Structures are given as structure tokens and as C-alpha cells.
Amino acid sequence: MPDAMVAAREFKAASGTVQQVDVAVVGAGFAGLYLLHRLRKAGLSAVGLEEAGDVGGTWYWNRYPGARCDIQTIDYSYTFDPELDTLWTWSEKYATQPEILRYLGFVADRYDLRRDIRFRTKVTEARWDEQAERWQLSTDNGAPVSCRHYIMATGCLSAPKPPEIDGVKDFKGAIYFTGRWPHDGVNLAGKRVAVIGTGSSGIQSIPLIAEQAAHLTVFQRTPNFALPAHNGPSPADRRDLFQSDRAAYREQARQSMTGVPYPQQTVVSWQLSDAERRERFERAWAAGDLVHILTQLWADQGVDAGGNKIVQDLIREKISAAVKDPETAAALMPHDHPFGAKRPCLDTNYYATYNRPNVTLVNLRQEPIKAITAGGITTGKRNVDVDVIVFATGFDAMTGAIRAVHPITGRGGKSLTDVWAQGPQSYLGLTVEGFPNFFMITGPGSPSVLSNMAVSIEQHVDWVVDRIKALRDAGFTTIEPTETAQAGWGRHMADCSMLTLHRLANTWYTGANVPGKVQGLMPYTGGVGPYRSICDEVTSRGMLGFRLTGPNVATQCNDGEVVRLQPDVRLVLNLLASLNLPPIESMGAAGARAFVGEFNKARPAGRLIGEIVDGTLPGADGPLPYRVYKPATPGPHQVVVYFHGGGWVLGDEQSDEPFCRDMVRRTGMTFVSVGYRHAPEHRFPAAAEDGYAATRWISEHLAELGGIQGPVLVAGWSAGGNIAAVTCQLARDRGGPEISGQLLVCPVTDCSFDRPSYNDNAVSYFLTRSLMYWFWDLYCSPDDRTDPRVSPLRGKVSGLPPAFVVTCEFDPLRDEGIAYAEAMAAAGVPVEQLKAHGHFHSSFTMVDVVITGVQGRTQMAEALRRFAGLPPEVSRGDETGHGHASPGHKIAAAAS
Fold it and tell me: What pLDDT is recorded for position 514?
């Protein structure tokens, strides 16, 4: 609809009147339009307040040459009305800005949404009226607004970032911003043009500007990864999949990690050969699909520095092949961030544009801009005369889009700007404590820009409108998150950020592109489907984390944290729960062993190490198998005697192989994993005596195992942690061998079941109270359970080697592990503890899936090296971190 027609619908009201509505919505883009539709269906009166002259949001303002979406438009579409998919057909795989704007206009017309929107109206102040329990809004056009609920649908990228270069006001030529491009276009024919910035808008516009300009000079501070869009009609395979079952296609998108229906990749990079990795990459490169190349190459590309570097190197090869001048090609190759940690760009002929004779690239890392003058741009090395400057310098993302609209004042005079001074705080990315009845769509703390925005917007809107309607129906008038819930969501956000490599890049995701802005990863990195399930859980648990009040109803406040588990642990446990497996203890010992064996076969063994050697050694009553895991570095090495988990019933010397390999790489030590005798065939004290006998034999045969002569170390997980602890006590009491340190990971240390962790974590965390009862019954009779050889907490704990004790928050064994560590410390033993927040019993041995265990395993490795008198870190020769600027770099490098 032309602006002139829209102008006729602008809200006109006599001065002094106040427009009274249930809900006010700021913004008329994808989110604002769907909000107005849903609110009307819910029987709620609403007004949309939009600064622009028509609907469209981001797509109203961003009209620069080449502007397109980077999610395939078959996915970047509303899904709430199946008829829309039959009434509108996209002309291209990646629609242009004009087509997307027409689509949004079509939606506005179909549902008659413009009649509820006040265009060319900016909110200048929003203040919570505590007496009336309403938001009072002032505007720059027409009447003020009084509303019960206030919703920001302002978009994540709608506040352009001003240039930070001296002399902009002195320039005599034309200046344009990609985020505020003139609606009637710009004629650049014959002009000398400068483009400053090579983010998404720069990469999309530069090829088209180069075709028009007499000469184009691109000023690049930070190169970005770009891949070809290969635009054209929607791919037949995607279109056929969609049309075969549209409802299923849309539901898969809603439950996916990104909002696009791709399966979760399970193969990790080190399982593939170089040829297989290249074939996958070439297929993705040819497909021209951003989500595909970000998620479908191998499972570890977004979480592991090594798996990510493979992708980086392959893209750099493509850049080198596309750009003829080697110096220009090198300047265009990113080396300062992992692939995907910044938003990669889809391009059409971007790299080839630099082969044109009328295009020059200026590398601002080598020659920063000193000033903009009346006639051009001065760097440290040259003066560039230009007629036109195009700023493609991006946005004050996510928070800027909300705070730039107006001052927002909540309960008790709280300013949102002040509350967010040290970074945004929210609950679910939808609400903020101290700001009742205030909602954000795709706000900081939600999946937003790391997802298909269309899918995330619909989920946000549905949840918010359903809550407002339920609130009204129950007689409540206010809803506000609690401080506890908001702080818990902040911790969950931090936990999620450790899963990915996003934190390793200076990007608008973290606010690093805005001088003075507090940096922190703003979008939720846990995935679209998991986020949806969390929001549903908040509702199903009685609006967990919210305080509801009303004049004629009792206040409701179900306080608490909705997610306390680490995000990947939560995914693992949900997957296990969905399998509806029978309890392990119901399988019998043989059946349980077969089940665990099959489970382990499906897991990758882990990264390559130097050498693996199998053998046998004499146990307490017959030969025992062992497996030696050696580092890739030349020996001899310190030796760690390792005991596997399995409740004295399950497992063998190979069952904890991923953990052993990982620790070998982190420590630079040799691990000898011992297969001890199992119950019920061999009951107590068989495992304990085997553990001690094996440790003595290994210490006497260090040379033939490739070990350094001297003390050994011992380590173990679960029941293996029990055997390691017992071995240290027996070695002290029986005259050796000498042990320099012990690593006890979630160890069994006592026969008592009455500690709180047994009740707190009795079910739902894989190792259950019932399963522990079963293990104990098979291994040890009640009369023997106080023997220190099975309950080391009951024995003498002084005179033991230094210990590093790991316990997990959601583990029945948590409290006895802590008790053992505290008892040793009280007896004078040097003890360090790792109390792993949000983890469960198996977290640290599930190397392939629990990425948040990396930091803990790094600490374990450093402890073992300290016990051996070695420096804390080992150089593995294949580190792929990006320097050592922050602890995050070390953790990410450890993940490789």
C-alpha cells in the first residue's frame, strides 16, 4: 500500500484524550503483525505503534541494493495459517527486500491489520503506573496510550549504529546508511563510491554498487565468512518435502535447533576422512544454504575449535580460488573468529567483485581510517577521493532496538537503561523483573537472531498472548518475573554459551561492535526446540518464576529456576527419557551388560591418540585385561592407573575409552585402564583387591608400559572412583606402591543411603537410587558394607596422596563424594573439589555429547599434572584456539 494511502489511516485524536487499550505493540514487522492478529483473536483490544509509514519493520527500512533474507523463504514465512502457503508463492529461494515487503503487506491486508496500527508514530516515553497497574505511553503523533500490557516487537536489528569516524560532518558528498536507504533508490552511476563495512549489508550490496560506480573502494576492518547463495527458484527437494506434508514440515521446524527442519547431525569431524569431509563441504557449498553449512557438515563444527577450523580452512581455499590478487584474497580471509561465531553471509559474486578493475579493497587492520574529509577518506597510507560514502556499519543489536525507542520506567521508578547498564537481564528473553506486564518479542535471552526468526517470533507471540489471555481469564492483572527466576535464566544463558564458539568472536551478538557497550552473548544458544520446551515447562509448572497479582484473587508466586541442568545434559536426559527404556536393574546382570555394550558401540571412541595396546596382568585371583592409552608425544610418560565405572557389575577396560582418550590428550600421560572382576560372579572384595593388585603390578612394570619410573597416579569414575580411593588406602597400609595423586570422579565412598542427594536425585538422572541399591546388593552383603575396602569413608583417611574429587549436582552419590573430600582435607590430605553445577553422574565420561564437561575435564587434567609435578597445561600439537585472550579461549581449545 502506498505511503499516501497509509497516511490517511494515521491515528487522529483530539489533544488531551488518551487511547485506552488492553495491549500496546511497538513495531509492525513480522512480530508486530502477528501480535495484532493473535490479540484480536483472543478478544483483546490492541494498538500498534509504528515509526515507519507502513508495515514491514526491518524490511521497510533496509532497502539497500541486494537486500535479501538469508533463510530460504519457504522457511522464512508465517506458519500460523496454512492457507498462506497456498495463497502466496515466493519467486526465489532467497526473496529480495521488495518481495518480502509485499508479502508483509499482503498479510496485513488479508487480516485487516492496518486498522489497528498508528503509523509515523514514535513512543517517546513509557511509564508503569503502579496505582492503575497500566503502562502510560507518550507519543510524538496523536494521543497518548494507556495499556494494561506493553509489548516490544521492535526487532533485533532496527537501531542503526552511527559511524564512529572523525570528520563525517565535513564530507561534502552524499552519505547513505544501508539500514536507512532512500525509498526511491540511489543513482550511483559514474560516482566514486566508498563502502565502509563488510557485514551482511556490505557483502550483499557491494557487488551491485560495483556494477554502477565508476570506482568502488571498500573499507574493511574485519573480514567475514561468506558463501554463495546460488539464488534461483526454491530447490525442488525442499519444495517437495514441504508439499508432501506441510504440517509435519512446520512442526519439525518448530522442534529443531535452528527453526529450520534439518536433523541433528551426529557424526563428528574426527570420524570422517579428509575426503569425506571435503565431499560434505563441497555438497553444502553447492547447495547455497546457510543453515545447512552451519549445522550439517559434522556435529562438532559449532562447538569444537578443531572441528570448526576444518570448515574455516575449506572456505579460505574457496576465497583464494575466487580472488585473483593474493594480497586481496588474504585480506578477505577471516582468521580472528570461528566460522559461525559471527553471522556468516550469503553472497552473490561477492569475492569475484574484487577482481573488477574498478574495485579496491582497503584493509583497515593495516591502515586505519584517520578522518573523513570534505572530499574523501584519509587512512594511514592514502587519501581516497569519493563522491558518495555508504555506511554498512551495522546495528546496535537486540538491546539497542528496545532502548532506542524511548525511556522505559518500571516499578519503583526503575529505568530499563539503568537495569541493563551491565548487560541485558531477562527471564526467557521475554520479560524483565521490575517491569510488570512488559514483554519483548525476540528479546535478549531468546533464540532470536540465532534462529529462523519467523519460527521464533510465532512461538514468542503465541506464548505471550496465551499468557495474557489466561491471566485475564483467571482474574489476574499483573505478571512479573521473580528475581530468582531471572538470575537462574542468566546462569542458564551462561551455561549455554559455553556450548558454542560464539563467545570467541567480537560481534554484534555480544555487543562488541558498539563502543562502550557491555559485552556478553545476548541470544540464547540452546536451540529453538529446547527453548520452546522450556517455555512450555514454565506454564505446566504453574507459571514457574512468575508473580501474578489481581484485585480479587490471591497472589500467585511459584518461584524457582526452570532450568538447573546444563543444557546438553538436559538434552541427553530428555533423549534417554523419550526412549522409554526399562530400568537397567530389571534387565539382570547379563542383560544390563549387553545393553551397555550396545550403547557404547554407538558412541565414537574419541580423538586419535598415540597408541593403544591391550594386555593382561595378574590380579588378586587370576589374570585381568588392561588397555594402555598412550599420548602421541614421545615417551616415556607419567602413568595413571584408571578404573572404569559400572557399579562393580558393568563395563570393562574399554567402556570408558572416550574419557581415557580425552584425558590422555589433556594430560600428556599414559592411562592404563584395568578390567577388574565383576559381581555378582565375583563379589566383595574382588574388585577392591584386583584394583590394588593391578596398581602394584603396573608400578613394577612401568618401563615396559612406556612409563616413567617413579610414583603412579590413580583415577576412577563411579565404582571405579571407589576402587581408586580404596587402592590409595591399601597402598598406604600395605607398604606401597607409591601413589602421587588420586582423581576420584563421582566416586562411591560409603554404604549409607540417607544423605540428601540420594533423595534429591532418586529418579530422573539415569543413575537412580534404585539402581544403586541393585549394584550394592549384587556386589556386597550388608554385613560387609562398612569395610573400608568398599566404604572408604569408614576407613582411615589420613596419610593419603593428594586428591581431586569431582561431584555432580544431580547425582545420588554427590554428598558422599563431598563428605570423603572433606574428611580427607580435615585429616591433612591436600584436596581440591570440583562441584559440577548442572551436571549428572555420567556427564564427564560422555565426552562425545556433554560439551559442557570440557572445563571440568580440563581441571582434572591440570590436577593430575600438578600431582605429578608437571606444569598444568600440555601442548597437544593440534590446538586450534584463537590466542589466549580469555578463559573462554582456553576452554574452547580444550574442546578440540
Answer: 47
Q: Which grid cell is 499?
A: 556450548
Give the pLDDT confidence score for residue 9 in this predicted structure.
40
What is the pLDDT at residue 272? 93
Q: What's the pLDDT score for residue 399?
A: 52
Query: How far lies 815's CA from each of 384, 559, 793, in Å?
Result: 68, 25, 12
Question: What pTM was estimated for this model as a whole?
Answer: 0.89
Write down the mean pLDDT value for the chain.
90
Dump the DSSP string for 604-642: ---S--SEEEEEEEEETTEEEEEEEEE-SS-S-B-EEEE
Cα gap 669→865, rounded to integer Å = 8
Instruction: Give the list of residues 6+ apart from residue 876 with CB closer than 8 angstroms, or none.
Output: 632, 665, 666, 668
Query: In this model, does residue 255 exceed pLDDT 70?
Result: yes
Question: For residues 145 and 49, is the Cβ–Cβ distance under 8 A?
Answer: yes
Residue 517, classed as helix, strand or coil, is coil
Q: What is the DSSP string of 10-55?
A: S----TT--EEEEEEEE--SHHHHHHHHHHHHTT--EEEE-SSSSS
Phi then psi dihedrals of residue 302, to 5 deg: -95, -5
pLDDT digits (tens, 9 = 90+) for 134-143: 999 999 999 9
Please count the helices (runs of H) and the strands (runs of E) in the chain.
28, 29
Asked whether residue 694 carries a pLDDT value surpassing 50, the answer given is yes
Helix (H) or strand (E) holding 87: helix 82-87
Residues 867 and 851: their CA atoms lie apart, in Å, by: 26
Residue 101 has pLDDT above 60, yes or no: yes
Q: How far apart are CA 338 and CA 268, in angstroms?
A: 17
Distance CA 460, CA 512 (A): 26
Give residues with Cβ within 8 angstroms of 435, minimum separation 6. Answer: 128, 408, 410, 411, 414, 416, 480
